[in-house]
Amino acid sequence: MTKAPFRVLVTGAAGQIGYSIVLQIAKGDVFGPDQPVVLVMLDIPPMAAVLEGVQMELIDCALPTLAGVEGVTNEEQAFKDIDFAFLVGAMPRREGMERKDLLAANVKIFKSQGRSLANFAKPTVKVLVVGNPANTNALVCAKYAAGKVPLRNFSAMTRLDHNRATAQIALHANVPVANVKNVIIWGNHSSTQFPDARHAKVVKGTIPLWPPTWF
Ligand SMILES: NC(=O)c1ccc[n+]([C@@H]2O[C@H](COP(=O)([O-])OP(=O)(O)OC[C@H]3O[C@@H](n4cnc5c(N)ncnc54)[C@H](O)[C@@H]3O)[C@@H](O)[C@H]2O)c1
């Protein structure tokens, strides 16, 4: 491969979501089959041994797109010269908690990571915040990276809400998901979100099927 590798950071790489996305990034599903990546995985020090296990598994895969894999537990090393960041590491919701209940714990993490983006990452870095509440964490992170990394380089992964609503409509209408379009989610990525199915377009074969009587 002739292209220079991207340095791609995944935080919380020893956790459930991190573990499931590192392989997709490493094997070319995200940046393409001809784009090498150096995967940098950050987690907290108590997870160092798990991180090492993930690192060994990725090495064992012998993936042509994986130009290197690093497991680290300090932010300076993790954010150094990165081109892309998937900020997954956060405290997950426990039973009975809403996404917004995580705010106090997670604001600290995203403040610190915003500063690390500003101090150590390439100024062109693109950031996807996954840790919940994702949109609020993205705002916090962008605020602390301001002046170095432009606001437009930050995204929050709220698409899950859209996908859930689309999948539910498809199930109820008994059509493939591909036949459901124009579902909108309004509000915050927490309990004030409002799935708007009124403007949905659903077809069975070529026949429009929306709104149904049960809507
Ligand atoms: N936006 C979405 O659509 C979406 C979907 C699923 C999960 N999530 C969120 O993603 C986050 C991770 O979920 P999970 O199921 O993988 O949780 P998990 O508990 O399995 O993993 C979280 C990992 O983050 C690590 N971590 C904690 N603080 C860290 C820090 N300061 N720096 C680096 N790593 C740190 C933990 O040690 C752990 O390994 C949660 O906030 C969850 O709510 C978001």
Summarize the structure.
This protein is α/β, with parallel strands linked by helices.
Strand content: 15-25%
Rounded radius of gyration (Å): 19 Å
In terms of structural class, how would the helical and strand content be classed?
alpha/beta
- Bulk shape: globular
- Helix content range: 25-40%
CATH class of the largest domain: Alpha Beta
* Fourth CATH level, the homologous superfamily of the largest domain: NAD(P)-binding Rossmann-like Domain
Number of helices: 6
Number of strands: 11
Distance between the termini: 52 Å
| Bound ligands, named by name, code or SMILES | nicotinamide-adenine-dinucleotide
Predict the CATH topology of the largest domain: Rossmann fold
Strand order of the largest sheet: 3-2-1-4-5-6
Walk me through what this model shows:
The protein has 215 residues and is of the alpha/beta class. It has 2 domains: 6-156, Rossmann fold, CATH 3.40.50; 159-208, no CATH class. 34% of the residues lie in helices and 20% in strands. A 6-stranded parallel sheet has the order 3-2-1-4-5-6, sandwiched between helices. Strands 7-10-11 form a 3-stranded antiparallel sheet. β4 (84-87), α4 and β5 form a beta-alpha-beta unit. α4 (103-120) packs parallel to α5. The protein is globular and about 55 Å long. The chain starts with 5 loop residues before the first strand and ends in a 7-residue tail after the last strand. 34% of the residues are buried. The structure holds nicotinamide-adenine-dinucleotide. Residues 11-12, 14-18, 42-44, 47, 88-90, 92-93, 109, 130-132, 134, 157, 160 line the site of nicotinamide-adenine-dinucleotide. Nicotinamide-adenine-dinucleotide is lined by residues 11-12, 14-18, 42-44, 47, 88-90, 92-93, 109, 130-132, 134, 157, 160.
